[in-house]
């Protein structure tokens, strides 16, 4: 029986995904690591899987076939990379000999074996494993606003991680999730939606065998640092509230992420050391041939950037979807020609 | 009919809508989200947030407008209670009011800048101490900071990091305004941070580079004009080794110990002098290219000093060939590995094997044998304890990736000969023993020196066995001794001195030969050399130093300065991980060991320090403490020849 693990990214996040895969390989050399890629390589990049830390690749265009262009056009980059997760999960659960499937966001790195989670899913009656953003209530108004109210708006469970057993319940969940994400994987918090994540608030209601992982060493991130103390012993163990750090979620690498980390990590060095390592590792895994902000599906065929407003227009109009099944095309009868003739919307230069 | 209440509400709503339309046109959503991560995380609409509460919290709607500055500069706007950005758009701009402090600066030359950052905010002493080049130039430090310093990311005071502020608040960086002015005028009121929660350590982390990048960024030294050949080395050695009664000590060191000042170099010089005094020969070998790691070349260049005279530069293989050709009995050759930094251990092992040596000596001057981080500070910050190379801690350490290869290469020396590990302290040997798994023949503790107590020959008849007098007559003199580097605790000393400067009964000193000393610390020049090993001891006595603050960030293997401070009658304040420093304090009873920096600061503020110093002064009057300096390996080697 095999454990499959996948992540979902575009080439802009290849360096992060490599760091994740290498960290996974270190602790689980026998797992099959999949790269789910919603992108096409930029010119000049020779993407050779033989040199990558992934075992297999799943291309979105291979999964969704002819409908890929039209379907993806209704999504921004974050929505797109999360919308494919459900369908990918279904495919991996059907791999021969599959026992369990793990999903990890590309901006996660694994620091210790995930064996307790594997064992948790082997417990009879358990099929789905979730990690909440927070495990204990916060104290200050600031932390409550940042963390608890954030969870209420964006989803209780963090979908940087999910593990599913290849059984009937696991497959029923994957089918439901894939169906919802196909239509409603949107970043529209006011409408009650937040990509693939908010849907998962419903998992404990709809499915039996849901296990909520209460291991403080899992999915450590700025949204739970207020209640998790990271320490490093003289024996070299990295601990979170006294338990081994299993995986850290390096969300929002940059000034915003740094500010949120600093808000809750205080003056203890370990969290900053972990971040500094991650930044170095990502920097070392960078590929010069990938232009900054690259996303094949992010631009019209003439190179102009697709603004969210035009994506929303397309997403909300089935007539336009039918009329323009290849909406990134340019030219006389293209979707963008129609948009510019009939609306005030314009492609970004 | 529309009632009064309805008309009022409608008017208020209408006015809000106008404000919303005006502000929406100039509001920078991306800027707002980037500047205020809490808004980004909360997921609220940034424009609505600014309209509703943001401006009242003095948040800025765009890089071009500082809400706090506008309210502070124009009290008429503040007292009207209107949205200041709306006021600026509708009225202020027409009236040519300034929207940001930088605008005022541009219009009014340099004088108004000094009003924004006044003398009280700017720390002249701190600036001059931190930046000796400014002090040397004679430029007014505030003027320097305001015109050049902030652009060079220099800090105007201990509580403000220019680089951190610019990196953390892209709106300030984008606006091109002086970050300290921004902080003083608006940032502070907006709740912006002036300094990373980690302080200076954050900068250390940000600057960490993998070793190969560090080495690549080192300046490449000029190639030597000529290299020694094997016959030249051989004839120089053979000429002096004529007597059958002479032994040869080959010392592997990391630099030219004869010309570089430092505790390790001092001990090697003492060893060389002892060998020559006894009529033996001493060959010092160090890498021509100084490196923070093992040599990355297969046959590195080494410099050679024979019996105190510089021979020149040679390839390692040339040295090995020369030694092979020398007519020396292997029993009379003693290999002493002081430091492997910059060497190729494989070549040192080859040298030992070529000479047919059966045993050698390996000194624990530091922990380079266990890790490239020779002070065992993970990421140059925190003492790590040299855990397993596969540990999580090594996984996130900048030195961790190279550690398996490093250990493998060091092992070559231990595999080549039966090695006796010599430690200058029990504390260092403990650390080494826990961290090393090399084959070791034996271990021995041999301090670089020890203390001998004798009655003070100048003791006055009045000298009492118990402390007398009060501390008020003479302030407590606290000092930092030696190299002003982070791993010796210099930053913590400055932190303490900066915090307590001006406190009655406390005086802060620096004794050494480094220049980066702020003016609130009194500097006394003291440089220990081979010819004057007691320079620091004398200086501590002469300056009447009561307290040596040694907040070492790693387990020091020995610490000459601690020994010298105690010998000079001072007490030592240190922390629990300082290795032999804490051990000396405990065994001599001359000082205190603290669990945290906060505890130390509290103690220095307290009358407890006064009592401790009074006791020390009484002891100084009673007794004289002498240092017996060791002859290093010469005390241990069973020399076949001349002998002492």
Task: Describe, in short, the structure shown.
Chain A is α/β, with parallel strands linked by helices and 349 residues long. In chain A, 39% of the residues lie in helices and 17% in strands.
Notes on the structure:
The complex is a heterodimer of chains A (349) and B (644). Chain A folds into 2 domains: 2-285, Spore Coat Polysaccharide Biosynthesis Protein SpsA, Chain A, CATH 3.90.550.10; 307-342, no CATH class. Chain A contains 14 helices and 14 strands. Chain A has helices spanning 14-27, 60-64, 68-73, 77-83, 85-93, 115-122, 141-154, 168-184, 203-206, 255-265, 269-285, 308-316, 318-323, 335-342; strands at residues 2-9, 32-37, 56-59, 98-104, 108-110, 128-132, 157-165, 187-188, 193-194, 210-212, 230-232, 238-240, 243-244, 247-249. In chain A, the strands form 4 sheets. A 7-stranded mixed beta sheet of chain A has the order 3-2-1-4-7-6-10, sandwiched between helices. A 3-stranded antiparallel beta sheet of chain A has the order 11-12-13, with no helix packed on it. Chain A has a two-stranded antiparallel ribbon with strand order 5-14. In chain A, helix 1 crosses helix 11 (269-285). Chain A is globular. Chain A starts with a strand and ends in a 7-residue tail after the last helix. In chain A, 44% of the residues are buried. By secondary structure, chain B is of the alpha/beta class. Chain B is elongated, with a radius of gyration of 32 Å. Chain B starts with a helix and ends in a 15-residue tail after the last strand. Chain A binds chain B through residues 111-112, 142, 145-146, 149-150, 153-154, 189, 223, 232-238, 244-245, 255-256, 258-260, 262, 265-267, 269, 272-274, 276-277, 280, 284, and chain B through 33-34, 37-38, 40-43, 167-170, 193, 196-199, 201-202, 205-206, 208, 210, 378-379, 381-385, 387-388, 391-398.
